[in-house]
Amino acid sequence: MLRYGALLLCTVFLITTLYGCGGRGRPLKAETTGYCGCGKCCGWERGSWMFLKLNFWNRYITSGKNKGKKYSGLTASGTTPREPNPGLFHRPWYLFFPWLWFPHDGTLAADTRHHSFGTRFYIPGYGYGRVEDRGSAIKGDERFDLYFNSHDDALQWGRKELDIYKVD
Questions:
Q1: CATH no., domain 23-41+75-167
Q2: Where are the domains of the chain?
Q3: What does the pLDDT read at residue 91?
Q4: Long-range contacts of 43-48 (CB under 8 A, 24+ apart)
Q5: DSSP string covering 15-65, please?
Q6: Would you give the DSSP letter of residue 130?
Q7: How far apart, in whole angstroms, are the C-alpha atoms of residue 153 and residue 160?
Q8: Could you count the other beta carbons within 10 Å of the beta carbon of residue 158?
Q9: For residue 48, is pLDDT > 90?
């Protein structure tokens, strides 16, 4: 009995290692752009003119229907945006940084009429991402914004036409 359990465990490990944990569907040709949480990308500025910019520690939205309201930094689904982290098994030097051991998906902005919140995608060169936000200029099912921690990384990504995969 123990032998069959070990054989089953080895088979499951081999299959998940060779094929990955998430199955990739057919490719979707999409236009991807990078964005970050800075004022240029997200449309906020420090201080409000109502207080003559003296409260510079607060961030306020500069355009749209919420103009003048405080900027929270959260996504449309209420989560904090983050860049993907592949985890310990993809980068062994993470062993020295325990807070990086566990993998997590990056934040994607998409048109939620086509892709609901929580839909998971694999983007080559970026990694796994989950739809958690809506972008102001994202219309259609073939446009995605990818979150980066820095403005320079977002600019370096730029705008790319890629085959992305919806993960089941």
A1: 2.40.40.10
A2: 23-41+75-167
A3: 60
A4: 43/136, 44/71
A5: HHHHH-SS-EEEEEEEEEEEE-SSHHHHTEEES-GGGTT--TTSEEE-SST
A6: E
A7: 14
A8: 9
A9: no
pLDDT band for position 35 (50/70/90)?
Answer: confident
Q: Encode 41-75: b = buried (16+ Cβ within 10 Å), e = exposed.
A: bbbbbeebeeeeeeeeeebbbeeeeeeeeebeeeb
- Rounded to 10 degrees, the C-alpha dihedral 140/146/147/153 comes to -140
Judge whether residue 18 has pLDDT over 70.
Answer: no
> What percentage of residues in the chain have a pLDDT greater than 70?
57
Alpha-carbon distance 108 to 104, whole Å? 13
- The b/e string for 114-135 (b: 16+ C-beta within 10 A; e otherwise) is ebebebbbbbeebbbbbbbbbb
d(CA 161, CA 30): 6
Query: Quick one: average pLDDT of 36-63?
Result: 62
Q: Do 129 and 83 touch, CB atoms closer than 8 A?
A: no
Rounded to an integer, what distance in angstroms lies between the CA atom of residue 141 and that of residue 136? 14
- Is residue 46 within 8 A of residue 57, CB to CB? The reply is yes
CA-based nearest residue to 41, from 109, 116, 118: 109
Q: Which amino acid is at 16?
A: T
Residue-level length of the chain:
168
